[in-house]
Prior knowledge:
Elements lengths: L5 E7 L12 E6 L5 H9 L17 E6 L3 E5 L10 H17 L3 E9 L6 H13 L3 E6 L6 H15 L9 E3 L8 H14 L6
Amino acid sequence: xxxxxxxxxxxxxxxxxxxxxxxxxFAFIGRSNVGKSSLINLLTDTPALAxxxxxxxxxxxxxxxxxxxxxxxxxxxxxxxxxxxxxxxRDFSQLITDYVFRREAMYFxxxxxxxxxxxxxxxxxxxxxxxxxxxxxGLVFTKCDKLSSNQVESSVARYKRTLRQHWxxxxxxxxxxxxxxxxxxxxxxxxxxxxxxxxSEQG
Length: 203
């Protein structure tokens, strides 16, 4: 897929503020500081599109980016650690669940996982929740340039073993590196194939 245009469309504090134009949405979510903004910038080839911060939990809104005037990349708030009040964390959780479980325009959810870490309880719980609600999703391992090829392979294999304890069929899996531009074409090809199979408009 060729990205000819990528522009910020809007930020939303609640589901009702999200665009109502019927365009399909591909959302990205993960623990805070997993490299979500960097991956979005890589996919769109627009370095400053999504704000990259060294402070975990910086994304507090649902951010829509219009791609090729045809579909959206959606940057969701990170879950897990965020240096905010308990009330704010509760609001973030509600914002995330409202979007993920109720947003009809969301065609697919990419769950980002830091490949360097052991399987984290919060990620596994979130993945199980997606399965319970029948949400279409895949796993995107980030920061793969930080490990050797063998280490990446071992980490992904460990994650698969963990998932197979509860899952008969595993979701799609990608390995990425924003630094090395790894995984960009594979993710864009997947999105392009989804758009070919999807109805012209949601709803």
